[in-house]
Amino acid sequence: RRRRFLKAPPAYKAAAGLSIVLAGWLFLGDVAESTRAVGLERAGRGRATAACCHGGHDDEVSWRDGLLSDLTVVLSDRTYHLHAFMLARSSSFFRAQVSQGSTGTAIIDLSAILPPSCHGVFELVLDFMYSPERSSFSVPVSQAVSVLKAAEVLGVSTLADVATSEIEVALPAAAPQLLEQYLALRACGEGNGSPVSAARDRIFQGIVDRFGSFVSDLHMRESMMRWPLSVLIEILEADALRTPHEDEVFDFVLELSRRIIERHYVPCNVSAPIDGGHRRQDRGDDDGVVLWHCGERVYRGDVFRLFRSIRIASLSTRKAAHLITLGQKMRNEDLVSEAIKAIASPEMRKTQARRAFLPRGVRPPASNDLDLCFHYGDGRRFEPGQLISARSELVGDLLYRLLVYPAGRASSDNGSMSVFVQVLPRPPAPPGWRFHNIEFTVACLRWQERGAGADIARPSAKRSRRWAQQKSEETDFMRERTKAGWSKFLAPDQFAECVGPDGFMCWRATIEPRCLGRTFLAPGQLSGDEDYGYDSGDTG
After folding, report:
1. Does the structure show a pLDDT above 80 at 526?
2. What letter does residue 420 receive in the DSSP assignment?
3. How much is the average pLDDT of 413-431?
4. Of 272, 262, 299, 271, which is closest to residue 284 (Cα–Cα)?
């Protein structure tokens, strides 16, 4: 046959090859069709099984209708008819119950097992355990901490991972909301547990990182006022507390202490119910209970500790004087002496300084720098003539501070920001004091993140990419002229690049190093106690 085929004409050979190709193609097509039919049959059986187990059509199994249930769960005043297999495959708690034979007509009561604050999320936990698509399951941020605790108690590790991921994504913006969920757990004595404790640490860090933003928001500030005093003290004592200036912390503490004392104060000889039926209980010493706040007892020492959380050395002169007055009224000599020492000691100002409120890559202020950060937001709350000022800094005998008018010094400024530097002598100084040829630079920070290793030098005549606008001036300061600056420093169309993601603006004023020698008064001028031109309130 081979010889005959080789001797055959070319047309015969071509026809034979074509027939072989067609036969092979038909064979492979039959195999593929058979394989597809088997796959569809198996897939159909799989979908039918999924519909029976997870719910997909008329025969679905759901915890909501109780069809074919073999396990009853009671939670508070609600009863759930569930399926032992669906619960046991996801929860180690229910798996242990099923292995002990607690099925059929048996009843499992979770009322004393789940914390009260987790009762409202139990149905969400059931949705997860019955869900066939767990990879796409999401947990609302408003219930994330409660779901995490419920998952921990019931041993649903996969749901705990989902809740933890939602918390990490929501931080730090939703930190106050998450903290209130944690406080609800803590009030029930259920704030412990490794997943919840780890989430609690991350939530606290989120609040510390954005404390300045939260305090500047009126709604958020009101919510923070209702937090337990022990929680607030822990936050305020953090070295990494991110606040534009310590005066914000002082104002918050002052408002909080006034609310507590004025609304919930109880004389020592009164035992009437306070704050939802709580009664005063004496601790047996001089530091007895005087008030209640958020369901917890507050001692006089706790109020003093609240004020000690303030970094007194970083306060402005007026706020520090106010704190001394408060200490005298509270008859707390330790607080008064500590405030006086902090004001008088420049070294304490360095040791008590918190983390700088600056973007990554911007160096902290030097000894001849003065930073001013404030919450600008959309700017609607500012009116022409409204002033924001930083605490004064001493360079040589020269005491200077930065004055910013966010809406302009007058309506004629057309919404431009006005910025001035005020210079006064260190007291005591004669009426004829004068600082010659003082060169200063004022710059507004551009809030754009760059490389972490960027070296940001002080503002100078050469414009830095870090600063949206900066200007310099050299002038004499004297009794008749204590301020110098610009009425239209920043135009409205430049505001957008100067406002950070949290609504803050940051400014820096610098006394140029080459004129630092001129910041000292002559020895003959350092005597005298006459009026030297300070505005009212600054002399203190």
Report:
1. no
2. E
3. 87
4. 299
pTM of the model: 0.66
List Cβ neighbours of 186 (8 Å cut-off, separation of 6 or more).
none
CA distance 336 to 332: 7
- For residue 475, list its beta bridge partners: 438
Beta-bridged to residue 77, according to DSSP, are none
DSSP letter string, 289-322: EEEEETTEEEEHHHHHHHHHTS-GGGS-HHHHHH
**CA–CA dist 233, 302 (Å, integer):** 9
Q: Per-residue pLDDT for 302 more than 80?
A: no
Average pLDDT over residues 203-207: 92
- Please compute Rg for the chain using Cα positions: 36
Contacts of 525 (CB under 8 A, 6+ apart): 429, 430, 432, 433
> Of 70-79, 274-283, 286-295, which gets the smallest average pLDDT?
274-283
Residue 271 structure tokens = 């035992």
Banded pLDDT at 329 (limits 50, 70, 90): confident
Q: Is there a contact between 230 and 298 (Cβ–Cβ < 8 Å)?
A: no
Closest by CA to 231, choosing from 275, 254, 255, 200, is: 200
Q: Helix 300-308 and helix 333-344: axis angle, to 10°?
A: 0
Distance from the Cα of residue 98 to its chain's centroid: 43
Average pLDDT over residues 409-413: 81
Give the single-character DSSP code of 411: G
Instruction: State the Cα angle at 323 between 269 and 242, rounded to 5°.
Output: 110
3-class state of residue 156 by DSSP: coil
**What residue type is 134 in one-letter code?**
R
- Average pLDDT of the residues in 469-481: 92
Q: CA–CA separation, 170 vs 98, rounded Å?
A: 36
Range 324-327 contact pairs with CB under 8 angstroms and sequence separation of 24 or more: 326/254
